[in-house]
Structures are given as structure tokens and as C-alpha cells.
Amino acid sequence: MESVLALLRAIEGGGGAAEIAPFLAQDYTLSEAPHLLAPAGATRNRDDALAGAEAAQDVVSGQRFVVRRTTCEGNRVVLEAEWSATLLMDLPHWDTGDVIRARVASVFEVRDGRVISQDSYDCYFTPPSA
């Protein structure tokens, strides 16, 4: 579980590619279930995930995870958290400066202290209508 929590701390700390790369195995894969910002979902390899982390620095700042529950079995970690960040650009449903929030459930597989896979199920909260 420590590898997963360290990865989250690296993301909170600004989490560009150089900061999160040490926590991801070479064969890392990320699978995102469909959600508000990616209606078709997405599957990414390590290089894609690192590029996404780098690009995210232009989209959000102040990422924060409030971990609500964790469960571990063998090399599997299941984590429930509330994620938030401040937007640096307009996105569908939100404007620059808005705080975007999601309830996150993720299943991580860890090998030799590095994350080899992550399946994420993100539920974004939309802002109330004006």
C-alpha cells in the first residue's frame, strides 16, 4: 500500500512525469472507466500516463486526495478517495479557477514496490446550475 500512497503524494506535489515515473513499473497500464470527461473511458500504457501527468500540469493545480478507505490483499490495493484540483483552463462543465472534484475508486496491482496496473472509476461532481 505504501507504493500507492507515495504515488498519490507525488501527484499532490505537482506530479509531472519525473515525479511519478519512479512509482510506475515499465509495463504499467491505466484503465479508466467511462466518466464525464472521458465518456468512452481510456486505456493508457506507462508512456501515455507519464505524458498525461505532464500535460495535467497545464490543466490543474493543487491536486489533493483525501483517502476514505483502503483494502489490501496480496499485491492488490483498493482505494476510495475524494480528489480535487483547481482548473487552470476551461473544461466542459467548469471554468478556469473552479475547483473540480471527483469521488475515485481505484484498484492497483503492485510488484516489487511499483504499480503495474491501475483500474480507475471516477465520478465527477458537476457544479450546481447557475
How does this model look, in words?
By secondary structure, the chain is of the alpha+beta class. The chain has a single domain (2-125), classed as Roll (Nuclear Transport Factor 2, Chain: A). The protein is built from three helices and six strands. It has helices spanning 2-12, 17-20, 46-56, and strands at 24-32, 42-45, 60-73, 76-87, 99-111, 114-125. Strands 2-1-6-5-4-3 form a six-stranded mixed sheet, covered by helices on one side. The mean pLDDT is 94.
Question: What attributes characterize this protein structure?
Answer:
130 residues; Nuclear Transport Factor 2, Chain: A; six-stranded mixed sheet; 3 helices; globular
The CATH topology assignment is: Nuclear Transport Factor 2, Chain: A
Strand content: over 45%
Shape: globular
Q: Which strand order do you get reading across the main beta sheet? A: 2-1-6-5-4-3
Helix and strand run: HHEEHEEEE
Which secondary-structure class do the elements indicate?
Answer: alpha+beta
User: What is the number of beta strands?
Assistant: 6
Number of helices: 3
- Please report the distance between the alpha carbons of the first and last residues: 41 Å
Helix content: 10-25%
Main β-sheet description: 6 strands, mixed
**What is the domain total for the residues?**
1
Mean pLDDT: 94
Structure, briefly:
With 130 residues, this protein is α+β, with helices and mostly antiparallel strands. It is 20% helix and 49% strand. The chain has three helices and six strands, in the order ααββαββββ.
Question: Topology of this structure?
Answer:
Elements: H1 2-12, H2 17-20, E1 24-32, E2 42-45, H3 46-56, E3 60-73, E4 76-87, E5 99-111, E6 114-125
Parallel strand pairs: 1-6
Antiparallel strand pairs: 1-2, 3-4, 4-5, 5-6
